[in-house]
Design goal:
It is built from 16 helices and no strands. Helix 4 packs antiparallel against helix 15 (about 380-390), helix 9 (about 185-220) runs antiparallel to helix 10 and helix 13 runs antiparallel to helix 14 (about 365-375). Helices cover about 70% and strands about 0% of the residues. With about 425 residues, the protein is an all-alpha fold. The protein has a single domain (about 30-435), classed as Na+/H+ antiporter like fold (Up-down Bundle).
Length: about 425
């Protein structure tokens, strides 16, 4: 299997690298190509990738977990608006109120389709998070991007990948696999209040202290220069490990750590206009009258943030490739049952639009922005993680196969529909905004 993976990943990486310009002109996303490649390599076609959710749940969980962690850290770094900026109101509401409404709608659909309450809640919780990776066209394009639609969708994807965890734990509790406490008291106190607040708090603290320490060493001591890849992976691993040790949600912690690093850069940027995305590479300084950019008082923080973001974006692309291949290999034609299609279309065309409209009708979004926010609720790697997590933790009853089929079909249709429409729709959106 290892040799097979080496061949598959190697060939795909070479092909992707050689055809990057051509691929950008295609009417569908790279994620859709990965999904198709996974299906072709899966047991229904070539058979080189033969994984089963029930047999390989832990492996699938770990791979998806790593992909989500990297993407969440990168999302935190992308969002540069001050925390008291009104821009944050929309993503916060989408990641909380709209997510709960979506879960409620999907629970209702699950019950109508004959699932037990526990399985229906699991279905809703697994499909709750939107993906911050798979539709890059709808994300913020640079650190100074203040477009309300793109900021909202990017922030929502970063927040709700972790905010969905309490509902997964609730589903496991209803299935008899997790302790909820009398009247759900333990779930409310531990799984909701402590795990959410503690995760955000510890992630922010570690990200802030780490960033300040590195900037101090670079400015004052000209130490800790370079090695951003080590520092990045170290901060992600440390934050995640500490968060899990104190029984909080590591996803929220890692997102908060990335966000804290970006906020340190924003507050520390003493030269107006010197944003992390605009800095030249350090090697560009030929005749250097002062310290290198990494140690410059004016650029140390921005340079670190830019280098870390560039590294995480590269790793994020590799993680996207790996997980979408796996999802494609798990897909079967038998999974496209009427009930699975009902779940997918119910989420994409009913639950998501209703939740967004009910949540944002009083927010300062234009009609076009509200419609696009309703449409671009792409599902992907986060849903794959939660599905594998649930199965790995014992959710393998007679209804799990139906839930899994519905989730995989929903991911596939979401990637195909949203991925194929993101580029043309957002191109029209940019043109329309340019005329305002």
């Amino acid at each position: 299997m290892f040799v097979v993976w080496c061949l598959i990943i190697g060939v795909l990486l070479v092909v992707i690298g050689l055809t990057d310009t051509w691929r950008q002109q295609l009417p569908f996303s790279t994620s859709a190509l990965y999904l198709l490649a996974g299906y072709l390599l899966g047991p229904e076609m070539v058979g080189l990738l033969d994984l089963r959710l029930s047999d390989n749940a832990v492996l699938l969980e770990r791979l998806a977990e790593a992909a989500v962690l990297i993407s969440l850290f990168a999302v935190g770094l992308r969002l540069r608006a001050p925390l008291d900026d009104p821009l944050w109101k929309t993503p916060l509401l989408l990641a909380t109120v709209a997510m709960v409404l979506t879960i409620g709608a999907m629970v209702g659909i699950g019950l109508v389709l004959g699932l037990s309450l526990g399985s229906a809640v699991l279905l809703g919780a697994v499909l709750a998070p939107t993906d911050p990776v798979l539709a890059s066209e709808v994300q913020v394009q640079h650190s100074e991007d203040r477009d309300r639609l793109r900021f909202s969708l990017t922030g929502e994807g970063g927040l709700n990948d972790g905010a969905a965890f309490p509902f997964v734990m609730l589903a496991l509790g209803l299935l008899g696999l997790h302790e909820l406490g009398f009247g759900g008291l333990r779930w409310w106190s531990v799984d909701v209040l402590w795990a959410v607040a503690g995760g955000i708090g510890i992630g922010w603290l570690l990200g802030f202290v780490f960033s300040r320490a590195v900037v101090y060493l670079r400015r004052e001591r000209e130490q800790a220069l370079g090695m951003e890849s080590f520092l990045t992976l170290g901060l992600i691993a440390l934050t995640y490990g500490v968060a899990l040790t104190i029984h909080t949600y590591g996803f929220l912690a890692v997102f908060a750590a990335g966000l804290a690093m970006r906020q340190v850069e924003r507050e520390d940027n003493i030269e107006p206009g010197v944003a992390a995305d605009a800095l030249p590479p350090e090697s560009a300084t030929v005749s250097d009258p002062g310290p290198p950019p990494a140690a410059s008082p004016a650029q140390a923080s921005a340079y670190m943030t830019k280098a870390v973001l560039d590294f995480t974006l590269d790793i994020e692309k590799l993680a996207e490739l790996t997980v979408m291949l796996l999802i494609g290999s798990l897909l079967t034609l038998q999974a496209f049952t009427p009930s699975a299609l009902a779940v997918a279309f119910g989420l994409i065309f009913v639950a998501r639009p209703l939740a967004v409209y009910l949540t944002t009708w009083r927010l300062p979004l234009t009609r076009a922005q509200r419609r696009l926010a309703s449409w671009f609720g792409i599902r992907g790697i986060g849903s794959m993680y939660y599905l594998a997590y649930a199965v790995a933790h014992g959710a393998d009853n007679g209804e799990t196969a139906r839930v899994a089929d519905a989730v995989l079909v929903t991911i596939a249709l979401s990637v195909l529909l949203h991925g194929s429409t993101a580029t043309p729709i957002m191109r029209l959106y940019r043109r329309a905004r340019g005329r305002l």
